Amino acid sequence: MIKINGLNEFQRKIKQLEDNAKALQGENSISFNELFSGTFMKKHTNFLSIDDMFKNSSFKIDSIEDFEAIDKASLDEFVNSTTNFITWSDMQEKAVTEWTAKKLGF
Q1: What are the residue ranges spanned by the domains of the chain?
Q2: Quick one: which of 30, 44, 51, 72 has the most CB atoms within 10 Å?
């Protein structure tokens, strides 16, 4: 939540929000560790980090190719049993939403 005391501060906050939004325009590259921050993981999962989550899974992930080869139904089942989410897609969407809100300054 943004707290505002007076018109000058309001104008400053609006300008900051505008600048933050401009910085997010276009394509953004985000690491898994940044997107699924420790705060996010502690809040929504049984794990301290995204690395911890996958280390405690049955999936062998040593590369992006390994991750992309994971059976989506198996990944969704794992996510459903160890997080607040039903699917991996739900978890990703929430992480992107929270990351974006943080970058905007909320």
Answers
A1: 31-104
A2: 44
Measured in whole angstroms, the distance separating CA 49 from the mean position of its chain's CA atoms is 11
Contacts of 44 (CB under 8 A, 6+ apart): 83, 84, 85, 91, 94
Question: 69: burial class by Cβ within 10 Å (0-12, 13-18, 19+)?
Answer: exposed
Q: What is the pLDDT at residue 30?
A: 83
Q: SS3 of 45, please?
A: strand
pTM over 0.85: no
Residue 69: DSSP 8-state: T
Per residue in 24-70, pLDDT tens?
566 767 888 999 999 999 999 999 999 999 999 999 999 999 999 99
Contacts of 81 (CB under 8 A, 6+ apart): none
The residue assigned the tokens 């897609």 is: 89
- Residue range 93-106: average pLDDT? 88
Tokens of 9: 């501060």
Residue 73 CA to residue 93 CA, distance in Å, equals 17
